[in-house]
Design a protein that fits this description.
Elements (H helix, E strand, L loop, with lengths): L19 E4 L6 E4 L4 H13 L3 E5 L5 H12 L3 E4 L5 E4 L12 E2 L4 H12 L4 E5 L10 H10 L2 E4 L8 E4 L3 E2 L2 E3 L5 H11 L2 E2 L1 E5 L7 H8 L5 E3 L2 E5 L12 E3 L4 H12 L5 E8 L6 H9 L2 E7 L8 E7 L7 E2 L11 H10 L4 E3 L12 H11 L3 E5 L2 E5 L10 E2 L4 H11 L6 E4 L11 H7 L3 E2 L1
Parallel strand pairs: 2-17, 3-16, 6-7, 10-12, 11-13, 20-21, 24-25
Antiparallel strand pairs: 1-25, 1-26, 3-5, 4-5, 7-9, 8-9, 13-15, 14-15, 17-19, 18-19, 21-23, 22-23
Helix pairs in contact: 1-2, 1-3, 3-5, 4-5, 7-9, 7-11, 9-10, 9-11
The structure holds shikimate-3-phosphate.
């Protein structure tokens, strides 16, 4: 496909780790639309890549992670075309997966490697998947074990039972599987493998996680029966599904909107509106947290043709925030927002506590440790726990050293939001990773009143 020209800050080069300086801002206010949802884009890229005919995708997220999914689907026989209108056309392989010429490198994308492994498990192919250093350190046994129970051969050739992953697919049988952790990626990996299995798949989650795969299956006419924490699905056997191309409109990514919602919430009287954001309740738990902290949140729903999930405009008006506790079943529904919740804690009065979030340690970075190290440099008192942290805000945020992204997009963006509230300009190192999910982040920061040098 033709690669989009991401709007970068002046002076930066694609792929080069660079630093920036975020200046204190009077406030963050205004109205923007954020790019397409990352989780939905990956799933639409895979499903349209498997369909027969040409699908049109509106608002596909053109970030590095989602481009990795398209490249992988191309290596498996699909074709993608970026149109001048910003829409994407995906010509599916009609379910006939091609043996790729070499290893598939999916960069930083955990969603691509785990979901694609599920899809490949039911194909008579032998495919090796790898990624960047961060991805090659993330746990993959969580997909190996159930996929092997189903009958695929999965070899983890990385040092710590990690990627590269070699999938030798074949004839799958359905399994009844209790997920050991709340993970939408593992659940979706098994749903995609289940499409090619013989028999009835039953997947039980320990807590509800994002359900984009189940919703997309229903849109495509694949029945999935959701009974509380259990999913039942009839496998379709080795031939798999027969899918027709269609038009998919993807809502804006709530996880990208979250940065601006928190930035507005923490400044009394400031208002931000983010238009056309996905409102799937399995993604929007941050809105409850913002309300508990004292901000005002209002939502108006939008109706666009071909929208794959509900969407709307979210308006947040800021207040003097108070600290919050975030824990339990709420965690999977704001798992990617926890770095920015930690920032909210640093900007609120009183103590904020994040618990039951040990999964944060195996994301693109160890997000508990990386957030703690950065927040301490801003004078925030942090008590790190195995499954979260306790945050005590300082009176004033005074940077004592440059902050680091640790190569993790959400750490970089969370720190940039915090820096808007500092007493002095803050240096943030290694920010190229932002392009993983939100290439427009810096230009949107400027559009809302921030200044990045
Ligand atoms: C995702 C699921 C979550 C989330 C990730 C995207 C998905 O990960 O953190 O950014 O698209 O299914 P886990 O499945 O590891 O919880």
């Amino acid at each position: 496909m033709t690669e989009p020209s991401a709007k970068r800050k002046p002076g930066t080069l694609p792929g080069v780790p660079v630093s920036c300086i975020v200046h204190p801002a009077e406030g963050i206010a205004g109205s923007i639309s954020v790019p397409g949802d990352k989780s939905i884009s990956h799933r639409v890229g895979m499903i349209a890549g498997l369909a027969s005919g040409i699908s049109v995708v509106k608002n596909y997220l053109q970030s590095e992670d989602c481009i990795s999914t398209l490249r992988a689907m191309e290596a498996l026989g699909a074709r993608t075309y970026a149109l001048e209108t910003g829409e994407l056309q995906i010509e599916g392989n009609g379910g006939r997966m091609m043996q790729p010429a070499g290893m598939l490198d999916v960069g930083n994308s955990g969603t691509t490697i785990r979901l694609l492994s599920g899809l490949l498990a039911g194909q008579s192919l032998d495919v090796e998947l790898t990624g960047d250093e961060s991805l090659r350190n993330r746990p993959m046994k969580r997909i190996k074990e159930p996929l092997e129970k189903m009958g695929a051969k999965v070899t983890l050739t990385g040092e710590k039972e990690t990627a590269p992953i070699r999938i030798q697919g074949g004839h799958l049988k359905a399994i009844d599987y209790l997920l050991p952790m709340a993970s939408a990626q593992v659940k979706s990996c098994l749903l995609l493998a289940g499409l090619y299995a013989e028999g009835k798949m039953i997947i039980t989650e320990p807590a509800q996680t994002r359900d984009h795969t189940e919703r997309l299956f229903k849109t495509m006419g694949i029945p999935v029966d959701v009974r509380g924490l259990q999913l039942h699905m009839d496998g379709l056997g080795p031939k798999g599904p027969s899918l027709d191309a269609r038009t998919f409109a993807i809502p804006g990514d709530f996880s990208s909107a979250a940065f601006w919602l928190v930035a507005a919430a923490a400044r009394p009287g400031q208002t931000v509106t983010i238009r056309n954001v996905g409102l799937n309740p399995r993604r929007t738990a941050l809105l409850d947290v913002l309300k508990r902290a004292g901000a005002t949140v209002s939502i108006s729903s939008s109706r666009e043709d071909d929208l794959v999930e509900e969407a709307g405009d979210i308006t947040v008006t800021g207040a003097e925030l108070t600290g919050v506790t975030v824990e339990g079943d709420e965690i999977p529904n704001l798992i990617d927002e926890l770095p920015i919740v930690a920032v909210l804690g640093a900007l609120a009065s009183g103590r904020t506590e994040i618990r039951d979030a040990a999964e944060l340690r195996v994301k693109e970075s160890d997000r508990i440790q990386c957030m703690a190290e950065n927040l301490v440099k801003m004078g925030v008192k942090i008590e790190e726990k195995p499954d979260g942290m306790i945050i005590e805000p300082p009176g004033e945020l005074i940077p004592q050293a440059g902050l680091r992204s640790y190569g993790d997009h959400r750490i970089a963006m969370s720190m940039a939001v915090l820096a808007l509230f500092a007493k002095e300009p803050v240096v943030i190192h290694n920010i190229a990773c932002v392009d993983t999910s939100y290439p427009e982040f810096w230009s949107h920061m400027e559009a809302l009143g921030g200044h990045v040098g």
